[in-house]
Amino acid sequence: MTTLLVLLLLIAGAYFVAVLEAWISNGRFRLAAPLYATIALLGRESIVPRKPDRIFFEVGPVLLLLSALLAATVIPLTPDLIITELATGALFINAALVYVLVALLMAGWGPDGAYAMIGGWRFLGQLIAYAMLIVMPITAVAMRAESLLSTQIVVSQLGLWNIIYQPLGFVLFFVASMALAFLPPFDMMIAKGELAGGVEAEYTGARLAVFRLGRLVLIITLASATAIFYLGGWQGPWLPPWAWSAIKILVVTATMLLAGRYMPRIREAHLLSWCWMLGIPLALINILIVGILVLEFP
Length: 298
Description:
Blueprint: H1 2-26, H2 33-42, H3 54-72, H4 89-97, H5 99-109, H6 114-130, H7 132-145, H8 150-155, H9 162-165, H10 167-180, H11 192-195, H12 205-230, H13 241-259, H14 268-296
Helix pairs in contact: 1-12, 1-13, 2-12, 3-4, 3-5, 3-12, 5-6, 6-14, 7-10, 7-14, 10-12, 12-13
């Protein structure tokens, strides 16, 4: 029952992301637009390229969706609303999201198309840049909680949320999450102006619908992870826990979608340079600061 409820909430969240993204992009708020778009995609013929790697081509969109769903299984929406509580839940989220790279490389390689392949390799370059900026802030969060249990991380923020306790870690994790979800300005792998859709260029019909659903669920999963790591999860006054989780996740999602609209698109080479020369040293400084705070003010 819990699993079904969480899946329904993820689908509802993905639908909200689609509505909000369309509103931000074209200025029109239409609640039924994602439904119409889905029906149109499902009713369209799924064209297969002439010489695809058929396994990669078919598995890529499905794996993208599954990796986002897998990461969501250890994210608690309330103290009791969690699919499975692993002792290493915080790191499991990072491990599950690694398969986003595998999915996009499959989607880039499988169709045997130039634009898709360039998009896939661009995402690989982007991953090399931000991968450490996902796991290193999680390390600092776990240090404060003295646990990798996602529920314990939420409980550890009872007196002070991590966004205040370790704001540097929050900024790094937030930016890395945007890059992982290939949101603007980190959307070079699907740049429609130059790659005609990149990794999704060769997908049509139901396959494209699955690919886009996977990306929407990925955004919600990353927003949920940000909420439990840095915004106190379900904690808050007056309202029930599920309401606080929903509010925080929606706020983080909206911020992720809005932030990139006002920034220039970044080449993966520049992102790689900035992350390794600036991001990783800042992440190490964040771990050092949190370590000192934990020792001095346990």
